[in-house]
């Protein structure tokens, strides 16, 4: 069982700078079968002298350098380790410089010259120093280097790094030429004194120069050789920036490069011993073989993983159960409006998701489409808020497992309004050559409502809010219009000398962006009697108007209205009598309810305000204390856009379609 040395051992050849240096082995003992691991540590002896890269070093130092400036010196190398490695430096006696010995992260030493007394070129142009490197052996071994210092005239601004220490990390398999770090220094001098050249500091180890390269102009540190995490985990690189002045200013910085481990080493399985053959009656747990598994990588890269196969046991899960999407109307077709997001914790095909639009409404399929792979919902056509405000649909998210699992997500698309509809004038009707004429009597006081402009806007909300402005008038001082109601009022009392005919142009504007507008023209006659109005209407009509015999038609209209009124009143009387008898019978039978007939339909305000077009009514105004009655007959010129409203009125009160209103000797106000 003795372990013997078979040849001469050189620790530096076997392990280099690694410490401790050990050789591992394994021993198998049989009967009983056992495995032992062992290691032999190779101890270092002081058999190597420190060595400088060169026998002479030259430094150029400006006389303007202030006390306290530091100048790195080339480091000596000693292949021994531990106490036998390089331990310290010594500097020959001189009045200007002291020596400061620093320790790197790996424990190695390097020396820097520290200026204690400023230089004077006129007093001494050169300095000769001797630097001695000593190891820790007993007795110590040493090496010497001559340092020649040239004192040059001042370049009063040295380069300055923007930071003294840079940190970077790089993967061990990074290819050559990859950028590791970019250092930057600035020099306030001009010309050559301000041009900066980057280089490695003199005490940068040769191994670092083999692995990294530095761009002298850009300060870019790049990978040059092959990095190995298992060999070195951290590199401490010292760089300098020097200007091109006659006495170059120098600045120094440090770059710490951390090597990141990658899984570049396969596990190694070693069969140490095999117990064969195995008896057929061997008990469970009998050792059959001894295996040894090693991996040079670190952390997770060095573990052995056991793969677990996936089962489709998770349904897709959406980040939201429902989505609300708001789309402006008049959109561009084909735009994406939503991305339905879902995840599946399964693996492979079990986690591959597909998106389908469930079409409960056929309209949805024509308007919307979804990308099966990424869940992007597209709008295929332009939407109109006035046509439909909301669309509802269901998106199904399904995985690729067998059997597949699915989740449904509801999507609501709301069409927001744009101001794309101008106000539409309902009264007076704009699409006709004829003119509705409203009548107001002379002497009408201020504040009297003459008529009303009625308009609608197909948009919604603020876009449909209409304002009315008097744009043009025959007499601007006589009439005004309500800003939001469209009601036209008298601003002052009508005088005898006011013009008999007034034309008002009303501007209607909504409140959208941009503002859309329309206009309405209102004709108002100032007349005491209907004859004057009829005369005015005849005057403004074309000479070839076939309705020039208006008097004849008016007389005929009066006769027809009177006959219709008589028939109507007779029908109403019969109807009232019938209802009275019916209610009496109902009262006698139940004595619990009373029948109340609806009152007559009053639509004078609607007519006077302009809600009811004039072709749906005739009005006769009768005075109570004069022998002459005034007839006001408005003859239709165009069809009414409010026919549906008049149908409602006729259905509500069929017996009172023509009305006779008793008034005083003046025209009625809207309240009357």
What is the fold's blueprint, element by element?
Layout: H1 11-15, E1 21-29, E2 34-42, E3 56-62, E4 70-72, E5 86-91, E6 97-103, E7 109-115, E8 126-135, E9 142-152, E10 160-161, E11 165-171, E12 179-182, E13 185-186, E14 196-200, H2 206-211, E15 212-214, E16 220-223, E17 234-243, E18 250-260, E19 268-274, E20 289-294, E21 317-318, E22 322-328, E23 335-339, E24 342-343, E25 353-358, H3 362-367, E26 368-370, E27 376-379, E28 390-399, E29 406-416, E30 424-427, E31 437-440, E32 449-452, E33 454-456, E34 467-473, E35 479-481, E36 487-490, E37 501-509, E38 517-526, H4 530-540, H5 550-590, H6 604-609, E39 619-623, E40 630-632, H7 643-652, E41 659-663
Parallel strand pairs: 3-9, 11-18, 22-29, 31-38, 39-41
Antiparallel strand pairs: 1-2, 4-7, 5-8, 6-7, 8-9, 10-13, 12-16, 14-17, 15-16, 17-18, 19-20, 21-24, 23-27, 25-28, 26-27, 28-29, 30-33, 32-36, 34-37, 35-36, 37-38, 39-40
Written description of the protein model:
The chain has 672 residues and is mostly beta strands. Among the domains are: 11-42, no CATH class; 56-152, Immunoglobulin-like (Sandwich), CATH 2.60.40; 160-260, Cadherins (Immunoglobulin-like, Sandwich), CATH 2.60.40; 317-416, Sandwich (Immunoglobulin-like), CATH 2.60.40.60; 424-526, Cadherins (Immunoglobulin-like, Sandwich), CATH 2.60.40. Helix content is 13%, strand content 36%. It has seven helices and 41 strands. Strands 3-9-8-5 form a four-stranded mixed sheet, with no helix packed on it. Strand 15 (212-214) and strand 16 form a beta hairpin. The longest helix is centred in the C-terminal third of the chain and has 41 residues, at 550-590. The termini are far apart. 21% of the residues are buried. The model is unreliable at 530-548 and 590-672 (pLDDT under 50).
